[in-house]
Design goal:
Elements: H1 5-22, H2 29-36, H3 40-52, E1 56-59, E2 65-68, H4 77-85, H5 89-92
Helix pairs in contact: 1-2, 1-3, 1-4, 2-3
């Protein structure tokens, strides 16, 4: 299964938020961008998309930042892919090149 750059960076941003949550803190957009080596504008776009989808939440103010909207254990990979690329794991198998007759990956949450 191939993932797009947007999907990869979105997943990496979520991992940064999961680590920060474990330490009881939130991350600013600049912190997320710096930790992942992407522009603040790109991080902002990703966080906006994931905020609209209910994966992350933002808090304004001097002590504000981004946090996961729910526990990391409740966020599924295919949900993140669907949000970031408007696609599902099922559609990634259309160009299947494996040795089996067909791709056996199916969406877990529809």
């Amino acid at each position: 299964m191939k993932i797009s750059a947007q999907e990869e960076y979105g997943l990496r941003c979520l991992l940064q938020l999961a680590r920060a949550e474990h330490e009881g803190e939130s991350l600013t957009l600049a912190q997320i961008a710096r930790r992942e080596g992407i522009s603040v504008a790109n991080a902002g776009k990703l966080m906006w998309i994931m905020n609209k989808a209910g994966l992350v939440q933002s808090t304004r103010g001097t002590k504000g930042g981004y946090t996961l909207a729910r526990p990391a254990s409740e966020i599924r990979l295919n949900e993140v892919i669907r949000v970031l690329d408007h696609d599902t794991v099922q559609n990634h198998c259309q160009s299947y090149t494996g040795v089996m007759d067909a791709c056996d990956e199916t969406p877990l949450n529809k």
